[in-house]
C-alpha cells in the first residue's frame, strides 16, 4: 500500500474519531429563556401563581452538557441531555437568601432547583420543576412542584 494512501486513511480515521467525541448536536437553541409556571402540582410554600414567571436564564448547550446561567436566585444550573432523546435536566442550589414563604419572611440556608425539560421547537421547551426551600423554621421548609413552559426571548 502506498504511504500517501496510509496517511490519508489515518487522517480520515482521526477525523471520524474526533467528530464522534464532540457529542451530539441538539435542536434546542441557546439564548435567554423565560420559564412560565403552568399548573402547580404541589405548593407547600404558598409561592406559585399559574402564568407567573418562574425563572429567566441563559441556556448554553455544549454537546450533551447543558447549563443555565443566572437562573432563579442567581443559580448556575448544570445538567445534561438524556441518551437518545431531546430532553435534558439541570440542577442548582443557592444559599443564604431571604424569601417570603407561607406568609413568613424566611432566611433560607439552601434552595435547590431541579428542572426536567423536553424540546418542543428550537425556541421552546416544557417540563417540570421542583424547588426545595430549607430554612430554620417550619414555614420556611417546603417544596414547590410545577409544570412550566419556556420560550426563548
Q: Would you give an account of this structure?
A:
- With 153 residues, the chain is mainly β.
- It has one domain: Porin (Beta Barrel), CATH 2.40.160.
- The chain contains one helix and nine strands, in the order αβββββββββ.
- The protein has one helix spanning 3-21; strands at 31-43, 53-62, 65-69, 77-81, 87-94, 97-101, 104-121, 124-135, 142-152.
- The protein has an eight-stranded antiparallel beta barrel with strand order 1-2-3-4-5-7-8-9.
- A hairpin with a 6-residue loop joins strand 8 (124-135) and strand 9 (142-152).
Short summary of the structure?
It contains 1 helix and 9 strands; from the N terminus they run αβββββββββ.
Q: Identify the overall geometry.
A: elongated
Q: Classify the secondary structure makeup into a structural class.
A: mainly beta
Task: Estimate the helix proportion, in percent.
Answer: 10-25%
Provide the β-strand percentage band: over 45%
Q: H/E element string?
A: HEEEEEEEEE
Described by strand count, sense and barrel closure, the largest sheet is:
8 strands, antiparallel, barrel
CATH fold-type name: Porin
Low-pLDDT residue intervals, each spanning 5 or more residues: 7-22
Number of helices: 1
Radius of gyration over all CA atoms, rounded:
21 Å
Number of strands: 9
The CATH architecture classification is Beta Barrel
Average of per-residue pLDDT values:
87
Provide the spatial order of strands within the biggest beta sheet: 1-2-3-4-5-7-8-9
Gap from first CA to last CA: 57 Å
Count of folded domains: 1
- Supply the CATH class: Mainly Beta
Amino acid at each position: 500500500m502506498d504511504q500517501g494512501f496510509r496517511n490519508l486513511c489515518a487522517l480520515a480515521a482521526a477525523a471520524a474519531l474526533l467528530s464522534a467525541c464532540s457529542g451530539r448536536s441538539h435542536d434546542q437553541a441557546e439564548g435567554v429563556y423565560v420559564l412560565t409556571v403552568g399548573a402547580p402540582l404541589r405548593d407547600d410554600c404558598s409561592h406559585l401563581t399559574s402564568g407567573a414567571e418562574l425563572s429567566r436564564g441563559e441556556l448554553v448547550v455544549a454537546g450533551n452538557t447543558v447549563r443555565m446561567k443566572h437562573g432563579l436566585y442567581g443559580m448556575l444550573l448544570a445538567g445534561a441531555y438524556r441518551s437518545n432523546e431531546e430532553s435534558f435536566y439541570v440542577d442548582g442550589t443557592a444559599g443564604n437568601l431571604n424569601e417570603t414563604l407561607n406568609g413568613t419572611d424566611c432566611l433560607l440556608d439552601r434552595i435547590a432547583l431541579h428542572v426536567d425539560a423536553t424540546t418542543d421547537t428550537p425556541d421552546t421547551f416544557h417540563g417540570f420543576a421542583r424547588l426545595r426551600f430549607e430554612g430554620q423554621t417550619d414555614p420556611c421548609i417546603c417544596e414547590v412542584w410545577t409544570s412550566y413552559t419556556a420560550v426563548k426571548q
